[in-house]
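pipeline/complex-builder :: batch 7 item 3
reading input block
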Amino acid sequence: MKRSVVLFLLLLLSCMAFTLATGAAQSTAEDPATEARLRNLSQELRCLVCQNETLADSRADLADDLRREIREQMKAGKSDQEIIAFLTQRYGDFVLYRPRVRPVTYLLWFGPFVLLVGGMLVLYRYVKQRRDSISEKPLTAAERRRAEDLLESAPGKEIA
Amino acid sequence: MARYLIPLVLFVILVIFLAIGLGRDPHEVPSPLIGKAAPTFQLPQLKDPSKSFSAQEMRGKVWLLNVWASWCVSCREEHPLLLDYARSAAVPIYGLNYKDKREDALEWLEQLGDPYVLSAADEDGRVAIDYGVYGAPETYLIDRDGVIRFKQVGAVTPEVWERKILPLVKDLNR
């Protein structure tokens, strides 16, 4: 009995310690709304050092600095659009993970669909041609007569 | 005939595109800053932090801004060339010491020589962000009106110096 009470108290204590710890962590962390916005926005941005990583995932020094810059601009009340403009002015469209739709990127955006439509056309033509070539045409009277002759002469007889 | 020719032609086109792609350096991102005004800044000088240096002071001169750091490996590779170029006095070279510790940077200059007229200390890398720096060393050629004319990402090579920078400097000084 005594032991279970001690155990219970210990558990209670550890829970308290845990809540205390998380409370402290929260108070030292940055404003959660800004952090969530930063996470969302930086997922759309490319780290220029390790180019296949987003700014959100990258541990490069520059990515740290850029996240700091973005955080500060968010606190200063800048909109996501303004922050993206700030970055593209300095690093170009390359910093955007999702390329902009403009004449130079038309091929990138619409090329796959053009290929798809083209492929479907080629497939359609091929299938149609093939169907035409194997479709049954009614035999003419002469052809029918020849076929009957062949069928009659075939079974059991040797073919020269 | 066309049956064999079409795939062959498609294959050749694919190979050409892939060959072009392979020949490119993926780290060279075209800078949107070429032809635009060099961002203004005011930073303490590396050797004498009580003095400051600003890009605006350089109006009326053609100059190079070289982003470097003592921790940067390619900078060490580039350094002897910069010393040569500084000696040739073709164009003044200014340094932007990027995210470096002051002592380390000073020691670096003392050991390897100092090609810079002066270096500005950008300790937290904010000015570098304004210049779109993403990998030191980077070198900017800035004209009399404070417009960026050329940018080299990575170490300046003799080829880049002879073929790109020098002709541009001559042109801009005319």
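note: DSSP finds six helices and no strands in chain A.
queue -> next item
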